[in-house]
Design goal:
Radius of gyration: 30 Å
Oligomer: single chain
Structural class: mainly alpha
Distance between the termini: 84 Å
Largest sheet: 2 strands, antiparallel
Strand content: under 5%
Strand order of the largest sheet: 1-2
Number of helices: 28
């Protein structure tokens, strides 16, 4: 075979240049493939980016010659035809016909009259599932289709046209290869999430209740809440793109990647600004770090960066450091987007990946350290503050369970260890504070996901030993962003218990009892009396602690005498207690009859009051209520942690109002504009306006806004 013959039969190049260089699979999407989109680089295809036509450049010139000779009026046509063999006679008409068809088509011109660079393609609707389309077999378009069901590939039966689910123009995620693990989780929409186990505290039960009530509502209302434009497109300025399996993604990176990340970090002043944002939001609420020790470790890190004799920080500390500056960078990006200033859009992703790689290089499953526990807690917080996704939220519950078990493995839940006597009082205090934060993450995530709590009262008994009364005098200065100062104050905040630690020390046994009652399956009529008693005890504890009902949510600082700031720790605990009360009364508020709230008036009023309080806190966090612009933006970013609590509260208020459309008498009936129903409707309008700001951030955000907007329209039309 000649060299020309071998080149004409060579496999055509379909991948982009970057995927070819890295020798990885290319999605071949135009104008940019998926890998180039994730890497935020230019996607260049061979031959000027023209789509593949099935003919290599050298063979195309040969076919051009064959086509010219195959014209009927060509004198060489008859002689050439006699010299062709059987194989060539079978091949030339196909190639010639292909080229003739290309020439016979009328040219499609662009609006400016220029001929396009690429061959136009037919835009046909893709009706088959992606797996059947890839295998080129017939698909019955079922959900799932018969072929995928028979081959036990139900989870791979994904349609690119999701109009049947109320979502359009959504990019699906393929589940048959590793690309699903590295894809954007918020793009993934399927009908199997609803089949996951969720107990009665989950917000999806509120949606089912509202749909049933709308079917019985007098007037021209519809119970189908899936209509409307959910705005599923992801915002271009979203700084974070997390894998669905983060922090256990399939990254094939070496030590060179971590070294490259360390060498490409921003200047020290910029990183200190990121740390200040973290200290002013996340750390002020969860108190995960020993700030004095962390300050010393950061100084040693920069001494090593300057080339001193300091040893290189271990991988466990680097993972924690990357997570801290990643969260601070996300807050910085949120403020930069609000102020139209320049930011670091791709840095959070690289830092999250670097933290994941560093964590995987430590024996954290066999020999976890306090640094590993803090890093995993920060990873859960990063997934929670990440753009709303039902799938990402469900993946946080297994992570918090793993953190609980790792923390128990090093004895954070008990003081009965032989080595305890060797620890200083400061070390004991830091371990107890970290355990309180871990327990809080587990309890909150159980309520969000509608899953059982995997903690026993004896596991948290150490938090109740010697717990002082809560006080607000031990808080740090309101903001560290002003001068990029995040070091500890002269009177260290580590010397006294935090509000989270002291509140959980007195409330955690009652909270475990309340969550057990909320997630239990018993239908004993006596349970309602017990629920009312637990509700009263929780409210008394909230009043005595000062977290809620009389909340010092806005605190005036001596440093800023003319402004007010939001106490994020008090807001977080207030929202958590309100969410616990909503879950506690959920089984008595929801029911198959419209008299569910009337039969249990205490549950109905408690749920409504808690939901309205959460919506009020949402408005305070997102709108600022008199805070300075930088503080307003940082608190609005911090409010992303509570998207599910806000959505549950909004659906609770909607459920009460929709039930009022059916019940024309009683305490839940809809009355005039200035009555209770009018106040509730105004709260929903404010909630809708807040959701509209992030409706383009993800599919779930767009769906949440569409639901609230449609319910507000239905309620306004019935007044």
């Amino acid at each position: 075979m000649t060299e020309d013959g071998a080149s004409s039969r060579s496999r055509p190049i379909r991948s982009c240049q970057r995927c070819r260089n890295f020798k990885v699979r290319c999605s071949r999407a135009r104008p940019r493939c998926k890998r180039c989109i994730v890497a935020d680089v230019d996607c260049v295809y061979a031959f000027g980016g023209t789509p593949f036509t099935g003919i290599s450049p050298r063979s195309e010139s040969s076919v051009e010659l064959v086509v010219s000779e195959a014209q009927p009026g060509n004198p060489r046509h008859s002689a050439k035809k006699r010299r062709l063999g059987d194989n060539d006679r079978a091949q030339v008409p196909f190639q010639a016909t292909f080229m003739l068809q290309q020439r016979s088509r009328p040219e499609r011109k662009s609006p400016d009259g220029m001929r396009p660079n690429s061959v136009a393609k037919r835009e046909r609707a893709i009706l088959s599932c992606l797996r059947c389309r890839k295998l080129k077999v017939r698909c019955d378009r079922g959900v799932p289709c018969t072929r995928c069901a028979n081959n036990h590939r139900k989870l791979e039966c994904v349609y690119s046209d999701l109009s049947i689910s109320g979502f359009s123009n959504t990019h699906p995620v393929h589940l048959n290869n590793s690309n699903a693990l590295g894809g954007v989780a918020t793009y993934f929409v399927d009908n199997y999430w609803d089949q996951r186990f969720h107990n009665g505290t989950h917000w999806k039960n509120l949606l089912h209740e509202i749909e049933e009530l709308l079917h019985r509502t007098p007037g021209e209302h519809t119970g189908d809440l899936s209509n409307g434009d959910p705005h599923p497109h992801s915002s271009a300025g979203a700084p974070v793109v997390l894998s669905i399996n983060y922090p256990f993604s399939d990254h094939d990176n070496s030590h060179q990647s971590i070294t490259l990340l360390l060498n490409n970090l921003p200047p020290r002043s910029t990183l200190e600004a990121f740390i200040a944002h973290y200290m002013d939001t996340i750390e002020k609420t969860y108190h995960l770090l020993d700030t004095d020790a962390f300050e010393t470790e950061v100084r040693d890190f920069w001494s090593w960066k300057r080339g001193s004799a300091k040893p290189r920080p271990d991988d466990g500390w680097l993972a924690q450091y990357f997570m801290i500056i990643s969260l601070g960078c996300q807050a910085h990006e949120f403020i930069a987007q609000a102020t139209k200033s320049n930011g670091y859009s791709d840095l959070p992703n690289r830092l999250l990946t670097g933290a994941e790689m560093c964590l995987r290089r430590t024996p954290f499953l066999f020999q976890p350290t306090l640094t590993n526990i803090r890093t995993l807690c920060l990873m859960v917080i990063s997934k929670q503050v990440y753009t709303m996704s039902c799938h990402q939220s469900d993946t946080c519950w297994p992570l918090t369970g793993m953190i609980i078990r790792l923390a128990m493995g090093i004895g954070l839940h008990t003081d009965r260890l032989p080595i305890v006597e060797l620890w200083s009082c400061h070390e004991r205090r830091m371990r107890r504070r970290l355990w309180a934060s871990v327990v809080f993450l587990e309890m909150r995530q159980s309520l969000i996901c509608g899953m059982p709590l995997l903690l026993r009262p004896c596991d948290v008994a150490c938090l109740s030993k010697g717990t002082p009364s809560p006080s607000f005098n031990n808080t740090t200065p309101s903001s560290a962003i002003e001068n990029h100062s995040w070091t500890s104050s002269p009177v260290s905040a580590d010397s006294e218990p935090t509000l989270l630690e002291s509140t959980f020390g007195t409330a955690v046994p009652l909270l475990i009892q309340a969550i057990d009652l909320a997630t239990g399956d018993t239908d004993d009529p006596a349970t309602y009396t017990q629920v009312v008693q637990v509700d009263e005890a929780l409210r008394n504890l909230i009043r005595s602690s000062g977290v809620g009902l009389r909340p010092p949510v806005f605190r005036t600082d001596t440093d800023w005498p003319s402004s007010t700031s939001i106490d994020l720790e008090a807001c977080t605990l207030d929202i958590f207690f309100r969410q616990t009360l909503l879950a506690l009364h959920s089984r008595f508020v929801l029911g198959s009859t419209t008299c569910a709230a009337a039969a249990h008036p205490d549950s109905g009023l408690s749920s409504l009051e808690s939901a309205l309080a959460v919506l009020s806190l949402q408005r305070s966090l997102c709108d600022g209520d008199g805070c300075e612009p930088a503080q307003n933006s940082s608190t609005a970013w911090f409010a992303g942690l509570f998207r599910y609590e806000f959505f549950t509260a909004a659906m609770t208020v909607c459920c009460q109002l929709v039930r009022g459309l059916v019940v024309e008498e009683g305490p839940m009936a809809v009355r005039r504009e200035d009555g209770p129903a009018g106040i509730m409707l105004e709260a929903l309008k404010s909630c809708r306006d807040i959701w509209s700001r992030e409706r383009s951030a993800s599919v779930c955000n767009g769906k949440a806004h569409a639901l609230v907007d449609k319910l507000v329209e239905v309620l306004q039309g019935s007044r």
